[in-house]
Every structure is written in structure tokens, then in C-alpha cells.
Request: fold
Amino acid sequence: MSLEAELVSSLTAHLASVQPILDRYGLWALFVSCLVEGFGIPLPGETLLIACALMAASGDLDLASVLAVAWVGTQLGDIIGFLIGGWGLKRLLGSGAVPPQRLQRAEALFARWGMGLLMVGRFLDGIRQTSNLAAGLLAMPWWRFLLGTLIGTSLWVGTFGLGAYLLKEDFHAIVAFLKPLGPAGLTLTALLLISLILYLIRRRRPHRAGKNDF
Reply:
């Protein structure tokens, strides 16, 4: 079996594994999963988002509801993670567990590059669950955090939610092809999928307008 086929099979298996959760809890499962990932608890938020988007493409769910639930849950989780990092972890590490000089250097680096990390890290497992905690811990300015997480959340939900809805079965193949390329590949994946999504939306509008003329 080729690497691409293995990745497609793996994604299909992951989608099948979360189907019973969706059948039982519906969009609440998506909301809770996106929420708790924002403050460090690893749940299959990305898989659930893709699964819900594909269900919407089949007519089993409403796409607007899927995107709204994922966006709100993700955004709330990110803010909670930022607050936990700033109020809880900051006090814990401020007790001397980490040398002050090292913490100050980390704060300076995060102040400079943190916004990009919040946007790109949304697409990376591990970083997605911890970047908000780090932003709060390292005293990232709240307005930079909000801007970074708003952009990151919107790109992530648009890529894996709207992308899966519009591309359907082809979404598996695209993700399988670009997934092994690492962080740069995932960033490229997001950019390519967003461009394709915008193209498909623009392509559909004239088609619908033409139908309304009759």
C-alpha cells in the first residue's frame, strides 16, 4: 500500500471512529472537543470538524451550524487557555521553577513571533493544544493574542470545515498528499485549500445567479 493510500485509510478510520460520538452527542461533541483543545486537553477536534463538514455535505447537518459551533468553541477554548496560562501557570513558574532570565528571553521571543505561532500552530497537533497556554504564560499582549487567535481560528475552521464540505472525497486525497511535508507543508495546505475554497465559492455564485434568472 502506498503512503498516500495509507494516509487516506488512516483519515477514514479516524472519521469512522468518531462517528458514534457524533451520532450520540451531535454538535455538542464538536463544541466540547474544540473548546478543551484550546487549553491543553488533546481531543479529536480536527477529526470531528472534518466529519461534521462531510455530514453537512451529505445533508445530515447544517453547514452554517457546524462552522459556527466549531468557531465559537475554538475561540472560547483559546481565550480560556490564555487566561489559564497567564493566571495559573505564570504564578506556578514564577515561584522559581524556571530561571527568570530564561523566562524573560522566552517572553521576548513569543512577543515577536507569537502571533505567527498562534496562526500556524492551529494546524499542528501539540502546538494547537499548548500555544494559548504559552501565550498567557509568556505575557503576550492581549490584543496581539486576540488578533492571532481570531485569524488562526478562522483559517482553521475554514480550511477543515468549509474545505471538507466543498471538496468532499477529494479532501482526503489532498490532506494525504500534503500531510507528510511537515509544518511547511501544512501551512501550504491551508493556503492552497483557502484559495481553492474561495475559487469554488466564486464559481458557484454565477451558477446560482443564472438559475435565478429563469
Observations:
- Residues 1-8 have pLDDT under 50 and may be disordered.
- The two ends are 50 Å apart (CA to CA).
- The chain has one domain: 3-206.
